Amino acid sequence: MTQNYKPAYPAEFRHQMVKLVALGKCPKQLSKEFGCHYTSIQTWCHAAGVQYRPQATVTTFASSGTPLNSNERQELMELRKKLKRVEMERDILAKATAWFANNKD
């Protein structure tokens, strides 16, 4: 009888998932986006010593201690999301550049 066996995920994929969890992404959300089970992501994170911690909402400016209003809080959250996306794009482009450099004919 044959088993339904899914091959192991590549190491680079596992490292990316762990990195995203370390940045505050939810393992369940990642599992929906990338098609792997969230317990696999949790296992990889545990092995890497990374624990999922939802990003705390910032309520005050660090330097002055004054509270953020709702517009400032929203802008801060949007900027953090944009920064994560841009960092991921940068990493992808760096990998693509390296791949093309190694595969010249």
TrEMBL record:
This is Transposase. Keywords: Coiled coil. It comes from the Bacteria. It comes from Nitrosomonas ureae. Residues 69-96 form a coiled coil.
